[in-house]
Amino acid sequence: MIEMEPVQVWESGSVKRTLTDVEAAARFLLEKWPSVVEGTPLHRAARMVALDAVQGNAPAEDFRAAFIAAATEAEILAPADPKPEKLLPGHIAEPWRYGKRKQRR
């Protein structure tokens, strides 16, 4: 498995998929790509770079860039989930886990 920075795409109207490796993204290009934009120059280029990346002839970053361009053209690129500015301590992030407990007798 060749890892890459995550890319999020809309698989259907309400299903967002996060792709984190070249193989999964290449399968998405082949099997789940919207048929109305299949075969465009950007889609074909992404498929070619995917093949090169899977074979080890192109870096994952090149494939990711081609995939993002094709997904943008197809209007299926989803916004990335926001990352928290900083990690919160457990008692703040999940207060229900750290509440006062009744003592057993």
Walk me through this protein's architecture.
The protein is elongated. It contains four helices and two strands. The protein is α+β, with helices and mostly antiparallel strands. The chain has a two-stranded antiparallel sheet. Helix 1 runs antiparallel to helix 2 (41-54) and helix 2 (41-54) runs antiparallel to helix 3. The protein has one domain.
Mean pLDDT: 88
- The total strand number stands at 2
Could you say which overall geometry the principal axes of the C-alpha atoms support?
elongated
Strand order of the largest sheet: 1-2
How many domain modules?
1
Chain oligomer state: single chain
Sheet having the most strands: 2 strands, antiparallel
- How many DSSP H or I helices? 4
Radius of gyration (CA) equals 20 Å
**Percent of residues in beta strands?**
5-15%
* Content-based structural category: alpha+beta
Tags for this model:
elongated; alpha+beta; 105 residues
Write the layout of secondary structure elements.
Blueprint: E1 3-10, E2 16-21, H1 22-31, H2 41-54, H3 60-74, H4 90-93
Antiparallel strand pairs: 1-2
Helix pairs in contact: 1-2, 2-3
